[in-house]
Amino acid sequence: MPHFLDIHKTPTADLKAMMAQAHAMKAARAGLPKGTPDADQPLAGRMVALVFEKPSTRTRVSFDVGVRQMGGQTLVLSGNDMQLGHGETIADTARVLSRYVDLIMIRTFEESTLLELAEHATVPVINGLTNRTHPCQIMADIQTFEEHRGAIEGKKVVWCGDGNNVCASFLNAAGPFGFDLTFTGPEPLDPEGAFVQAAREAGANVQIERDAFKAVEGADLVVADTWVSMHDPASTRERRHNQLRPYQVNDDLMAAAGDQALFMHCLPAHREEEVTSSVMDGPQSVIFDEAENRLHAQKAILRYCLDV
Ligand code: CP
Ligand code: NVA
């Protein structure tokens, strides 16, 4: 019963098999209406709980649609409406949900909540984002890169801005998928040292470069994310904006990267803050393919966890 808690906690061969399956499942559905069931219905008879303690558009809709396409059923639950938000322990919640459903996807704040849920659940648990990581997003991002440019191995990915949860999952993926990662952002917002060290130990070439224009030279992929994440206190907004303004992804930065570079953003984006509309809507941007691929990548993750 494998969980999907983080990319670096999942065997590399399994990650690669999931990626191949995500591509194949997407190709098999090309042009079909979204509600058309997948021919093989691998999740027939399965019940999946989707628990959200933070807002979500993409994660909520892509998991729900993905499960339904594969013949399963979903329960979309808000953590606040559950006893979980009112004092019931995570361990007891895990034991109870495991009696009703075959898999739990959770988006939460502290990573410890995810880990405790996984420890006490008797069904697989998928990480739908914590304050620390967002592995489903990076599976979709790698699928998107491969669609446009072929294998990501040996390619240069440049993360611009806050060294946040999405950045951490890129770091966690760099070793297993064999790409180079350059972080460019202000020192106070560097990614967690433990993730940088682990990525290097996993064989990844990880660089930190304060000058965004130098960082993007020769990039195959430039990535941005919000300057203020859902778990960041609102009081940090002004300071973060001042720190991060030099790292905005705009036409000048993409020109420095070169025409070969793709642009990605997990969304939701704040137009004219971390990225300009000219880049988001420009020829190098693949942001909506990236959003679509949440669906296909997560369907492969669901199948992996349920062994179907
Ligand atoms: N990218 C992402 O996880 O989006 P949502 O917050 O809308 O789920
Ligand atoms: N870093 C962002 C990602 C949202 C999908 C956040 O955690 O709010």
Automatic annotation (TrEMBL):
Pathway participation: Amino-acid biosynthesis; L-arginine biosynthesis; L-arginine from L-ornithine and carbamoyl phosphate: step 1/3
SUPFAM superfamilies: Aspartate/ornithine carbamoyltransferase (SSF53671)
Domain (Aspartate/ornithine carbamoyltransferase carbamoyl-P binding): residue spans on this chain: 3-147
Residue sites binding carbamoyl phosphate per the record: 56-59, 83, 107, 134-137, 266-267, 294
Organism: Actibacterium mucosum KCTC 23349
Name of the molecule in the record: Ornithine carbamoyltransferase
Keyword terms, alphabetized: Cytoplasm, Transferase
GO MF entries: amino acid binding; ornithine carbamoyltransferase activity
Residues annotated for L-ornithine binding in this entry: 165, 225, 229-230
Purpose: Reversibly catalyzes the transfer of the carbamoyl group from carbamoyl phosphate (CP) to the N(epsilon) atom of ornithine (ORN) to produce L-citrulline.
UniProt record, GO biological process: citrulline biosynthetic process; L-arginine biosynthetic process via ornithine
Major location category of this protein: cytoplasm
EC number: 2.1.3.3
Catalytic activity: carbamoyl phosphate + L-ornithine = L-citrulline + phosphate + H(+)
PANTHER family: ORNITHINE CARBAMOYLTRANSFERASE, MITOCHONDRIAL, ORNITHINE TRANSCARBAMYLASE, MITOCHONDRIAL
PROSITE patterns for the chain: CARBAMOYLTRANSFERASE
Domain Aspartate/ornithine carbamoyltransferase Asp/Orn-binding: 153-304
Family as reported in the entry's similarity comment: Belongs to the aspartate/ornithine carbamoyltransferase superfamily. OTCase family.
Taxonomy, superkingdom: Bacteria
Gene Ontology cellular-component terms listed: cytoplasm
